[in-house]
Amino acid sequence: MLDGKVIVVTGGGRGIGRATCLMLAEHGAKVVVNDIGGGADGAGNDQAPADEVVSAIKEAGGEAVSSFDSVTEWDGGQAIIQTALDTFGQIDCVVNNAGNLRDGIFHKMSEQDFESVLAVHLKGTFNVSRAAAPHFRQQGSGTFVNMTSTSGLIGNFGQANYSAAKMGIVGLSKSMALDMDRFGVTSNCIAPFAWSRLIGSIPTDDEAQKERVAKIQKMTPDKISTLVVSLCSDQAKHVTGQIFGVRNNEIFLFSQPRPIRSAHTSEGWTPETILSRVMPAFEADFYPLSRSADIFSWDPF
Known about the structure:
Elements: E1 6-10, H1 15-26, E2 30-34, H2 48-59, E3 64-67, H3 74-88, E4 93-96, H4 111-139, E5 142-147, H5 150-153, H6 160-180, E6 185-193, H7 207-216, H8 222-232, E7 243-247, E8 250-253, H9 271-282, H10 292-295
Parallel strand pairs: 1-2, 1-4, 2-3, 4-5, 5-6, 6-7
Antiparallel strand pairs: 7-8
Helix pairs in contact: 1-2, 1-8, 3-4, 4-6
InterPro entries: KR_dom, NAD(P)-bd_dom_sf, Peroxisomal_Beta-Oxidation, Sc_DH/Rdtase_CS, SDR_fam
Protein name: SDR family NAD(P)-dependent oxidoreductase
Domain Ketoreductase: 5-201
């Protein structure tokens, strides 16, 4: 399905990234496995995870190369794409999967923890995608697959930085789709449900949380990889600007913000009339303070 395509996967050394690299290669792609080998919080460097994935791909008869540049830097994004060009002569798809977590309740969150998460997720998605964009434009084709999260789409406790970054990726991905559509380039988001080191940081202080984590542990990364392979194929050239979710064997298409109610007056509004007329009229359609687990409350097995 992907014969002849060269695909960059950031955060490709572990979890969803690793499974994605292996499945892309299985379907014929040449893969750049980018991973700095940091911990769940993004700290540290270890080349082993990326190299191990590359070795596994080569042992199975595929082609791959390691990349250890950081997505958080402009030059890092350029270097990652250059690795694809230098090694394989082209770049066809970018899977923006690199991530970190520094959870904390909002009123205690540090500036450093906020900036670190946005730098990896949001800025990282921009840096690598922006480096690939001129090549996509020149060749008249290309695919971006960007990882978002229901923590941003719906909400979660203690993840203001992560939620902000993941919602930012949704807006960025849509802008990429709009700006590059005329060049035959697609851009879509995936909100994955799968066990990974990042999910492994979820607190398990009570039985409900322990049960939730136990269910997530059953959701394997290859379920997400299957959708990534599909979006990178030529058969999905018409699919762009969308937000998907994968939860075990379920695939979701998420809604996108659109007006659902309106209020109008020829006289113009005052604070008093807004509070007495508009808010009561809208109140039945207000969204509650839901978390991801409140919306996805059924057992996927």
